[in-house]
Amino acid sequence: MSPRHEPPILPPDAVHADPRGSITALPPFEAVGTVVIESEPGAVRGNHYHHDESHLMYVVSGRMIYIEDDPELGICVAEVGPGQSVVSPKGVPHTTVFPEHTVFVTLSDVDRTGRKYEDEVVRVDPLEERPEVAPYLVGLGPLVTGEMQRRRQG
């Protein structure tokens, strides 16, 4: 069974380049906080949803496999590469898997400082273990999960 649809990949709003380099305007997203995340090959991040937060993830370098479990559409998978973005809507379980070293920026529409982030996150069973996701993970080797997921798996 394959995923029912791919989450929309958002290109930059604009890219301005000249001999000095380039300036990339990200897709419109009302942000309160911004973080830069670096992930190693095989890393898994997420397997949760947010009660009150949506966030835009913009890939600077590398690539990520974005997986979400839309309540109406089921499992959705997209490969997001450099210069592309995807939005995780509030209330939708999601995870990311990184086939290679990747740097991405996350713009959040709520304040994530202190305990605010963990207090509003709800952990879910690993989306990357769903059978319909397997074709997207072929050849990745062992996956590296976070502490919260290791605790749940026993």
From TrEMBL:
It comes from the Bacteria. Residues 37-101 form the Cupin type-2 domain. InterPro entries: Cupin_2, RmlC-like_jellyroll, RmlC_Cupin_sf. Pfam families: Cupin_2. Residues 1-21 are annotated as: Disordered. This is Cupin domain-containing protein. It comes from Streptomyces roseirectus.
